[in-house]
Amino acid sequence: MDRIDKKILNLLQKNNRISNQKLAETVGLSAPACLKRVKKLRESGVIMADVSIVSPQIVGHRINVIVEVEMDRDTLDVYDSFNRQMSACPEVTQCYQVTGEVDFVLVVLVPDMQTYEAFARRELASNRYLRKFRSLISLRREKFRTAIEL
Description:
Layout: H1 3-14, H2 20-27, H3 31-43, E1 63-71, H4 76-87, E2 92-97, E3 104-110, H5 113-125, E4 130-137
Antiparallel strand pairs: 1-3, 1-4, 2-3
Domain HTH asnC-type: 1-62
Protein name: ArsR family transcriptional regulator
Pfam family, one: AsnC_trans_reg
């Protein structure tokens, strides 16, 4: 990946609806050469997806909960099972396996506390391999980015 690829990626992360012509002009390439580079970035997995970022508040998901999860056992089968379980939960927008005092950190978006309580009972409290979990309710989001500066 060279500096032109990085310029392309930085621009696409800010606006992936930019026309190929405008993108090519901005990075100093011909339109076909730019299109070829973007296609290669997609095929190689550097560009994982083209998405629209939706405002959680406007669509009714007003509560953001960070959940720290500590498992009862440190085994791959337990971790894999928990990962699969969280992947199937629509409330979980992010799931990280981490080092340190806890095993997982979840980001959970829900419309209200009743929905979070139902999720916690159904998916966390009922998990026989989960030792404990701690819920941190976000008061407000101070920073949110999806772009990685290259």
